[in-house]
Amino acid sequence: DWWYDEYDFDLGYPEGPAEQVVLQTTGSVPLLKDGSFEQELGANWLLYVDTARSSAQARVARDTDAVDGAYSVRIDIAATAADWQVDFHQRDRSLEKGKSYDLSFWARADAARSIGLASQKGSADWRGYGLSRRVDIGTEWKQYRVTFEALETVNDSRIQFFTGDRAGSVWLDGVDLRESPAP
User: Fold this and answer.
1) Euclidean distance between the first and final Cα of the chain, in Å?
2) 80, 141 in Cβ contact below 8 A?
3) If you ran DSSP here, which 8-state letter would residue 68 be given?
4) pTM to 2 decimals?
5) How far is CA 86 from CA 5, 50, 91, in A?
6) Integer CA distances (angstroms), 14 to 2, 5, 10, 183, in order
7) Measured CA angle at 87 (ends 69, 172), to 5 deg
8) Cα separation of 50 and 160, whole Å?
């Protein structure tokens, strides 16, 4: 129970867990290109399907079911594998060691599921650069935000969405990566 002494006022009990509120994002530069998918996908975003080592089958297309602009992206997974074997990503993104970054995006799926998020080197040895999470998404559009700290200063990071472990469709829109504001 919280008491506001200066005003002799009872604030009551918290209604939920504490959460970081972003008060200002001005000055923060977007680090991804075309996160609202208004341009053709091959220019900035790629889908990798590991058909050499798995039976994964998937395709990606722009879709007019969108929350940010006129288009979203829809990833259709027809045959499953490990989640990382269907990898929708943007490559060659710069990160600075020790800095925190916010990856925010809108997502939904045809059925409740989880997806993987990662930042990793864009070539062998494929080491991680700080982001490695699973996010549960539902069937309605919802905005998600994940904060991570970069482990290295690099300019070859892939920002990735892994969807290969379950058949169905996943929609993404409004994908944005920015340096986190000061707490």
Assistant:
1) 24
2) no
3) S
4) 0.85
5) 55, 7, 15
6) 8, 17, 12, 20
7) 20
8) 14
Q: How confident is the model at residue 3 (pLDDT cuts 50, 70, 90)?
A: low
Q: Vertex 114, ends 139 and 147: CA angle to 5°? A: 105
CB 68 within 8 Å of CB 123: no
How much helix, strand and coil, in percent to the nearest 5, is found in the chain?
5, 50, 45
**Number of C-alpha atoms within 13 angstroms, CB side, residue 114?**
9
Q: What is the pLDDT of residues 71-93, one digit of tens each?
A: 999 999 999 999 999 999 999 99
How far apart CA 136 and CA 114 sit, in angstroms, is: 4
Tokens standing for 84?
Answer: 């990382």
Which two tokens mark 173?
A: 């829109």
| Helix (H/G/I), strand (E/B), else coil: 7 | helix
Tokens of 92: 């060659």
As a whole number, the mean pLDDT across the chain is 92
For tokens 């060659």, the residue is: 92
